[in-house]
Structure formats: structure tokens, C-alpha cells
Q: What sequence folds into this?
């Protein structure tokens, strides 16, 4: 893990339940949990129909994808009480710090909503994950 990126992610994503910053090979650059689904997440933005149909799995939990606007995809868990649902978002940068596509994925609990959390993730990826 990159220590500077880890520090920036920890500070910037403090309202996230979980986060992982990784490259296309699945190499973790920063995370606050042990991510296991990175290869599938790296392919999520390849096909809109598949993303909407299959959702995205983060830390073993499925999130329905409501919005698919590459380089972003995001949604929430479904079922149960809406106020207990968990949001998830994925952001991709085409040329990241490792010279290949890199990604940021987050989950967030209520009262945090995508309207607030997705721009935070996108800004982190644009400012700190994208290669210069």
C-alpha cells in the first residue's frame, strides 16, 4: 500500500464504512478492510446491462446498481428497512498511479447518500489516484 495514498484515503473517506483503492490487477493501494471481489469490480464498468442485472458485490454484500455512468457506478442494498440500506460506489481512472486503470470503491451507511459520497470518491480518484 502507498502510505501517502493510505493517509489521504483515510482522511478523505472518513465517513465511508469501507473503502478500497486498487488497480486492474487487483493490487490494493489502500483499504480499510480485506477486499476480495476486486477483479469483478474492475470489470463492472465494462457492461451496463451486466452491472444493472448482477449488481456489485463489496465485502460479500450485493448492492443493486441504480446508476451506471462510466467512470462511475453506484447503488444500494435492497430489502429490509430503507433507512438501514448500505450504499456503494465505484470510480475508475483510465491511467492510475500504477500506469494502468485504477479504481476506488466505497460503501456508506445512512444517513450518507450517493449525492454526497460519490463526489467525494470521484474527487479523491481524480486528485490522488490519476497518473499525472
A:
Amino acid at each position: 500500500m502507498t502510505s501517502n495514498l493510505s493517509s489521504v484515503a483515510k482522511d478523505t473517506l472518513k465517513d465511508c464504512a469501507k473503502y478500497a483503492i486498487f488497480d486492474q490487477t487487483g493490487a490494493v493501494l489502500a483499504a480499510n478492510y480485506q477486499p476480495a471481489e476486486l477483479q469483478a469490480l474492475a470489470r463492472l464498468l465494462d457492461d451496463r446491462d451486466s452491472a444493472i442485472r448482477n449488481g456489485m458485490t463489496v465485502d460479500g454484500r450485493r448492492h443493486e446498481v441504480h446508476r451506471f455512468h462510466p467512470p462511475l457506478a453506484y447503488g444500494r442494498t435492497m430489502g429490509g428497512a430503507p433507512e438501514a440500506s448500505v450504499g456503494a460506489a465505484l470510480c475508475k481512472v483510465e491511467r492510475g498511479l500504477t500506469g494502468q486503470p485504477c479504481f476506488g470503491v466505497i460503501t456508506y451507511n445512512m444517513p450518507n447518500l450517493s449525492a454526497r459520497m460519490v463526489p467525494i470518491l470521484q474527487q479523491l480518484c481524480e486528485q490522488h489516484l490519476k497518473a499525472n
The chain has one domain: 3-129. The CA atoms of residues 90 and 105 lie 4 Å apart. The mean pLDDT is 95.
